[in-house]
Specification:
This protein is α+β, with helices and mostly antiparallel strands. Helices cover about 40% and strands about 25% of the residues. Strands 1-2-3 form a three-stranded antiparallel β-sheet, covered by helices on one side. α1 packs across α2. It starts with 9 loop residues before the first helix and ends in a 9-residue tail after the last strand. InterPro entries: DUF4845 (IPR032314).
């Protein structure tokens, strides 16, 4: 009587491990950038909850950078030029938009674009 064997061969198993390892390595490189962005979102949420009456744009930017520092957002991630205030659908909005270049293998990099805007309350002082 012939017995029927079921399962995968060693080569098939190695291919599966290789593919899983590739995606695990990719996740290892990308997850820190997304956790850092969650810190940016949390800091922006704190700014949205505050009353910003009479604060200048520079004071709001400085406060946001300080709050992002508390959230372990690296100094080189969000530059002061990446932060802006403008009119949006919900009134005055605080916007942060930045790109993060993540080296992957050899000459292959991931370029990830992050963007978030939150409404802020209060009368923002006009720039000097």
């Amino acid at each position: 009587m012939k017995s029927k064997h079921a399962g995968i061969t060693l080569i098939s198993f190695l291919i599966v491990v290789l593919v899983a390892g590739f995606f695990a390595y990719m996740a290892m490189k990308l997850v820190p950038a997304y956790t850092e962005f969650m810190g940016v979102q949390k800091a922006m949420g704190e700014m949205a909850g505050e009353n910003n009456d009479g604060k200048s744009f520079e004071e709001i930017r400085r406060d946001l950078i300080r709050k992002m520092d508390y959230q372990y957002v690296s100094d080189g991630t969000v530059q002061p030029g990446d932060i802006s205030i403008g009119q949006g659908a919900q009134g005055t909005e605080l916007r942060v938009a930045y790109d993060k270049d993540i080296p992957f293998v050899y000459n292959i990099d991931f370029l990830v674009h992050f963007e978030k805007s939150v409404p802020i309350t209060g009368n923002i002082a006009a720039p000097n």
